[in-house]
Amino acid sequence: MNALLEIESLQAAYGTSQALFDIHLTIQEGEVATLLGRNGMGKSTTVRAICGLTPASAGSIRLAGNGLAGLRPDVIARLGVALVPEGRQIFANLTVKEHLVAFAANRRAAPDPWTAAKVFAFFPQLAERQQNLGNQLSGGEQQMLAIGRALTTNPRLLILDEATEGLAPLIREEIWRCLAALRAAGQTILVIDKYVERLIALADRHTIIEKGRVVWHGSSVQLDADHGIWHRYLGI
Question: Which of 20, 43, 133, 134 has the smallest number of CB atoms closer than 10 Å to its CB?
Answer without folding.
Answer: 133
